[in-house]
Specification:
Strand order of the largest sheet: 2-1-5-4-3
CATH class of the largest domain: Alpha Beta
Bound molecules: adenosine-5'-triphosphate, magnesium ion
Shape: rod-shaped
Number of strands: 10
Order of helices and strands: HHHHHEEHHEEEHHHHEHEEHHEE
Number of helices: 14
Number of domains: 4
Strand content: 5-15%
Distance between the termini: 87 Å
């Protein structure tokens, strides 16, 4: 603005000198003084009140001086009138310019006032917008976590998802979950649940954390466990109560915050987040994390229930397994007793009776008839005993293996029920261990019992085959077909038992049926490994 006025001042001085010289050269009476109005206009162009006044005073003075210095000539009255008129025009122009200048100044100040207002409003609008965005982000985070908490996906995945969301929201690169130790132990144990934005960057710290369980009150998570409130450390490397910082020279993290995961009032876990830089506490963030901790409590509540249910399921499965083992042992023992002792005893009785029969050949026919009856009865008894022993535990299973035992059972089934039955053995000589063979054989017997009892089938096809890791036994009948309700019914204890037996070997039983088109039962178990609980049902 200053240089702007100076420029006009310079132009004004040059112009006034030029006008004055011109005025001094021309005779009196010519209205040269009028030209000084230009100086005033220059002041107005410069938007400078002082320049207008100076121009008016200078123009008037030079106009007056010109009267004395300009060459004589013309009528005196006219000359004086011209000079006075010039003086008046300079003054009027100066006044008008001053008024215009004042109006301009007012306009300018009104404009700058408006501009400040607009700027102020824009800033406030921007702040409100930012606040709104932040609130929307918080609401989004809380909603995402609430939804994840109620979803039925695996608990580990839910916790991973939540830790990742919080990490992204806070824009902190590292997040980890500590869980409360199971009773009777106390304190916190580290988990495998991490969110790491730059893999590899925090390896040292992660390794230390993995080996550092924390007692109540110790370290950042320990403090949260003690207080039940979110906590913040600006720089963990300078904190006297952060043991993990003391285990390595450079752990790669500085600021940390953590919040409790609560079931009611009980802290069941602590989520901790770290940044590579020192960061001052953010109260708002801590308050939000408090809310999220309560939401996450639901996930851990579900985990707790799931763990308990898994434990009881495992106990039940083990009991069932033990029951089957005991039953099998008992059956084998009884079958052996019956076969070895009772059967031998009956055979001896039969031999003795035959000898007696020969010795009594000279006696009456009545006695002979009686001994013959006794011989027939002992024959029947021997057959019954052999059948009972076979039913209890076919020795063929122990002696020749699964394929032969199924072959024998198929023949027995055909003979006993009159239902057609074919066996396709595709094992190509592969032998299974006795435990697996027993499981498959017993499930097979159960399916045959079901076919006789429920299917009204006329034909059954049995196929035994091996895949890369599994052994499959497929039993297909052409009966009335099983319904989905019957398959899923929890009271179908026979089917449940079949599934339980298969699960022991990491396997499953698949049952399908279509009305009047028959039922197919496929038993699948792992070829090797102990298999326990590896399977799905
Ligand atoms: N091959 C089949 N064809 C048609 N229906 C079948 C067949 N196998 C099973 N089902 C149906 O499935 C139901 C459940 O079978 P499951 O073996 O569990 O029980 P169950 O044979 O009735 O009794 P149990 O506990 O003594 O075995 C049967 O009641 C029957 O209705
Ligand atoms: Mg049954």
């Amino acid at each position: 603005m200053k240089s702007y006025s100076a420029k006009y001042l310079l132009i004004g001085i040059v112009a006034s000198a030029a006008i004055f010289i011109l005025d001094a050269q021309l005779p009196l009476g010519i209205a040269d003084g009028m030209l000084y109005v230009g100086l005033v206009l220059l002041g107005m162009m410069a938007r400078n009140r002082s320049l207008i006044i100076i121009a008016a005073i200078l123009g008037s003075a030079l106009n007056l001086l010109g009267y004395f210095l300009s060459p004589p000539g013309g009528d005196l009255v006219q000359v004086i009138t011209n000079r006075v008129l010039a003086f008046l025009i300079i003054c009027v122009t100066a006044i008008l310019c001053l008024l215009r200048n004042k109006a301009d100044e007012k306009l300018e100040s009104a404009r700058s006032f408006l501009e400040t207002k607009v700027e102020d409003r824009t800033v406030r609008l921007k702040e409100a917008n930012q606040r709104l965005n932040k609130e929307a982000e918080i609401a989004g985070l809380v909603k995402a976590i609430a939804m994840a908490s109620n979803e039925t996906r695996a608990i580990k995945d839910t916790l991973h998802f939540c830790i990742e969301k919080v990490s992204q929201f806070a824009d902190w690169p590292l997040g980890h979950l500590y869980l409360k130790a199971e009773e009777p132990a106390s304190g916190l144990i580290p988990t495998e649940i991490w969110h790491v934005r730059d893999p590899g960057k925090f390896d040292v710290f992660q390794k230390i954390t993995g080996n550092t369980p924390l007692e109540i009150g110790v370290g950042l998570p320990g403090r949260v466990l003690a207080s039940g409130e979110p906590e913040w450390i600006i720089d963990v490397t300078k904190d006297p109560n952060f043991p993990r910082a003391k285990l390595a020279k450079n752990i790669g993290v500085k600021a940390g915050f953590a919040f409790p995961i609560l079931i009611g009032q009980e802290v069941v876990g602590v989520m901790e987040f770290f940044s590579a830089k020192a960061v001052k506490p953010d109260r708002e963030m801590l308050a939000i994390m408090g809310q999220i901790g309560t939401q996450l409590g639901r996930v851990l509540e579900r985990k707790r229930a799931q763990d308990q249910s898994e434990v009881s399921q495992k106990i039940l499965r083990n009991l069932y397994l033990r029951l089957q083992e005991v039953r099998e042992e008992e059956r084998t023992r009884t079958a052996r007793e019956v076969h070895d002792h009772l059967s031998q005893l009956l055979t001896t009785i039969k031999l003795e009776l035959s000898l007696l029969d020969k010795k009594l050949s000279n006696y009456s026919s009545e006695v002979k008839e009686s001994t013959q009856q006794l011989l027939d009865m002992s024959n029947d008894a021997i057959h019954s005993v052999q059948r009972i022993a076979m039913d209890l535990r076919p020795p063929i299973l122990d002696d020749l293996g699964l394929s032969e035992a199924i072959e024998w059972q198929v023949k027995e089934f055909k003979g006993r029920t009159g239902i057609g039955c074919k066996f396709f053995n595709e094992m190509n000589g592969l032998e299974l261990d006795l435990e697996r063979s027993t499981t498959l054989f017993r499930i097979f017997q159960e399916t045959l019992t079901n076919i006789v009892r429920h299917s009204q089938a006329t034909q059954v096809d049995v196929k035994l085959y091996a895949c890369e890791e599994n052994i499959n036994l497929q039993v297909q009948d052409n009966g009335c077909g099983i319904t989905e309700d019957q398959i899923q019914n929890l009271r179908s204890l026979g089917l449940l038992g079949m599934r339980e037996r298969a699960m022991v070997w990491g396997g499953f039983v698949q049952i399908t049926g279509a009305q009047d088109e028959g039922t197919t039962v496929t038993i699948n178990i792992k070829k090797d490994g102990n298999g326990e609980n590896e399977g799905e049902n």
